[in-house]
Amino acid sequence: PLRTGLCLAGSKDGSIQEVNVSPCPTQPCLLHKGTSYSINVTFASKIESQGSKAKVYGEMMHVDIPFPIPEPDGCKSGIQCPIQKGHSYSYLNKLPVKSEYPSIKLIVKWELVDDQDQMLFCWKIPVQITS
């Protein structure tokens, strides 16, 4: 698995066990326009929550630009809700790279928050968008 960075805010309500982005054999991940990438995060929850919601950003020069994903609902992304304390979950999603995106280097920041808007997980990975 790739070495992904944890976000500074950390994960108050959960802890990450593994992050997989595929296909991405080396860092920064080369993200080809018009392609979708698979995201798989295994995490353990420290709390109970009815739901979960993903927020994805592209971080450039310390500015977070929202990155739209087709399915922000964590309960429709492999997580069995309600989330239970002490359980491990496998979160699965897709990161679509649109053809109109600029060819740039940036950091993808992926957060999953619970009902209280607290962090279940947060990780970052450097990427290079390319045609």
UniProtKB/TrEMBL annotation:
Belongs to the NPC2 family. CDD domains: Npc2_like (cd00916). Its main location: secreted. GO terms for cellular component: extracellular region. Residues 4-127 form the MD-2-related lipid-recognition domain. This is NPC intracellular cholesterol transporter 2. Pfam families: E1_DerP2_DerF2. InterPro entries: Ig_E-set (IPR014756), ML_dom (IPR003172), ML_Npc2-like (IPR033916), NPC2-like (IPR039670).
